[in-house]
């Protein structure tokens, strides 16, 4: 069983790499096996359909975006003020920047969602839950920023990461400066 | 010559369609000929290399994003205030929403730019020029918003359009409301 769980993880990580490096159309069971170094047929064994494969990738992307041990603490020792909220947003951006394959894979899947309703359903449900969790978290911890602010920040940070990870504009702003300015202005 | 220019346009529009519908990896000379209904070999005749084809698509995307006759006027009859700037931004969003293939094709090319330096060069130069033009335009017409505000709006509108054209989150905000809130908060 452990063996299976491990192999599942290796295959999912290989899938994320394939998506990031070759785009959604490059994502085939065969490409995943090649990237994972597993015998041909292994990926199809674990994820029989392309939808199963994409579901597994969405789950794995979610895991890789979870806060690590060095993340900003939410243990309640800090006041739930603008500064703490800004630190949370900076934390998310740090995680996205540190693992560019995950962000690129996610952008690829979102474009694929524009073409395939089944991908839109899987990915849409996951993103909607994440958005709702953010809204609930801010509300429960007394942080500033309601649904509107969180929505606007989602859009802005997405656009910033898309720029940063593809062919960035020279706008005179570093990613850090842009994040600070966005939080400062959107959160009012 | 007219015939050639027309055919060039038909091929470029077919290329935009292929990009939007099949992604960057689906963009081949053969797919462009099929989408354009031209004999095989035509696209290669007009755009010998893939880089030539992508260059032509970037140019065509730029043309399709130009303001039409119904755009907000910049003839100097309105005061260069926040309201006029907000109207310009809404105009851009309207053009992007009305021609989703162009926006999707552009996102595909930007992801391709993360993988191919030649695409990054072509696309990067075009986007940098567009950004610089925006900054110069605002400055010359006395509109509010300098490089920082224009950069932040670029990011935020990109993220908003990406969401809107793929599997949109239900954030409780319409595209219009999000644009107004973003302009209002970023432009201070």
Automatic annotation (TrEMBL), chains A, B:
Q: Where is the HTH tetR-type domain?
A: 5-65
DNA-binding region location: 28-47
> What are the entry keywords?
DNA-binding
Q: Which domain of life is it from?
A: Bacteria
Question: What molecular functions are annotated in GO for this chain?
Answer: DNA binding
Matching entries from InterPro entries are given as: Homeodomain-like_sf (IPR009057), HTH_TetR (IPR001647), TetR_C_31 (IPR041583)
The molecule here is called TetR family transcriptional regulator
- Organism whose genome encodes this protein: Bogoriella caseilytica
């Amino acid at each position: 069983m452990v063996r299976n769980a491990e192999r599942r993880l290796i295959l999912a990580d290989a899938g994320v790499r394939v998506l990031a490096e070759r785009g959604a159309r490059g994502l085939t069971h065969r490409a995943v096996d090649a990237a994972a170094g597993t015998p041909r047929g292994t990926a199809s064994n674990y994820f029989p359909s392309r939808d199963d494969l994409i579901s597994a990738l969405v789950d794995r992307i979610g895991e890789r975006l979870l806060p690590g041990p060095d993340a900003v603490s939410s243990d309640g020792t800090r006041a739930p003020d603008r500064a703490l909220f800004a630190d949370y947003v900076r934390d998310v951006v740090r995680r996205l920047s540190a693992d560019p394959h995950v962000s690129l894979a996610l952008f690829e899947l979102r474009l694929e969602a524009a073409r395939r309703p089944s991908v839109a359903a899987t990915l849409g449900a996951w993103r909607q839950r994440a958005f709702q969790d953010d809204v609930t978290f801010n509300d429960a911890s007394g942080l500033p920023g309601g649904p509107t602010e969180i929505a606007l920040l989602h859009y802005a940070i997405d656009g910033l990461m898309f720029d940063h990870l593809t062919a960035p504009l020279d706008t005179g702003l570093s990613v850090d400066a842009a994040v600070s300015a966005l939080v400062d202005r959107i959160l009012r």
